[in-house]
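Dear colleague,

Thank you for sharing your sequence with our group. We've completed the structure prediction you requested, and as agreed, I am returning the results in plain text so they can be pasted directly into your records. Please verify that the sequence below matches your submission; if there's any discrepancy, let me know and we will rerun it promptly.
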Amino acid sequence: MSQDKPRFHINRRGLLKGSAGVLGLSASGANLAFAAGPEGRKLVVIVLRGAMDGLNVVVPHYENRYYAKRPNIAIPPPGEPGGAIPLMDGFGLHPALPGLAAMFNKGEASFMHAASAPYNKRSHFDGQDVLENGTDSPLGTLDGWLNRALSALNLSPGAVGVGQIVPLILKGEASITTWAPSSLPEADPETIEETLDLYDNDLVLKAALQGAVDVGTLIGDLNQLGSGYEQLTRAAGKLLAADGGPGAAAISFIGWDTHADESNILSSNLANLNTALLGLREELGAQWANTAVLMMTEFGRTLAENGTTGTDHGVGGAAFLMGGAVKGGQMIGSWPGLSPVDLYEGRDVFPANDLRSLFKGVLRDHWGVDLAALDTTVFPQSAGVGPKNNLVY
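Please find the predicted structure tokens below.
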């Protein structure tokens, strides 16, 4: 094994020589005794909070009604100025996502359109709860399906939550750790050493603090990780790629609720997302080949634009599966179309594809989670939702 490969269990003397400053980092429950995931396979889950407009991200440019209902905000067809990047069969990708399009064309990304968790009431909070708790009710359970998947594999602690809050998807009995960037000033090595010494008689707190030091050192200078979405994905990539790093990471990106001025907001968000996804791949390095990335949102948006050049809450949306372990270049599931009889309640993309089928297919074939556990404990009472096949190698 290369001596240059970063590890979680860093010698403290060497660690303090180049520490980024533990007291300037969030250390919410750091615990570095990770299980790496089945056969070293990594899983990243990205939640786009606010209901991303799937129709303007994965563009059905062959659909005349798409353009008729969105005269001001529709993405032009491929070949026109500002046009969609062609993918397949009349679908294109928003022009701010060239990196994701390249992944698709390389066979490292797929999309699922008309996708939804089993929820259709269009409330952000309830929709996110259903998306993350893996049931068909906002109050179905107080823990998350990714945590329960870890328990089903006895991998705890095997996941890290990257961001300021622990997402519901990671809450539960399986132990997890979290990391978040901090705006506090860095601490000098002497302060770190002295603080660690203060906890010589409290092994639990000292271990947690030492773990936070290790994580902070591994991530390094935050100024080198970019900002916004990119900073979080690069941090996650560093943690996952480290020798002894976790098997999974969960990340949340906010800001996808586009009731007004959608074109500008979505273009900006997607450009940042594109940079973040490329940063994640770069930081994962060789581990990219062992990685699957699930990216989804709580629901889609209306077919018709509103009076403020935005869109309102809908049902069917778009999700993505990416990674070097992914059999990409395909549309997962079925597409209902946009004719009036095909819409949900005459206004939204019909939720033809249950997101749990996507999650189950990845968890079964990428991580080896038993189908019986997926149907009963990971996604309770979901035996009628079969896993999608042919998603990963």
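Summary note from our side: The mean pLDDT is 88.

Kind regards,
the structure core
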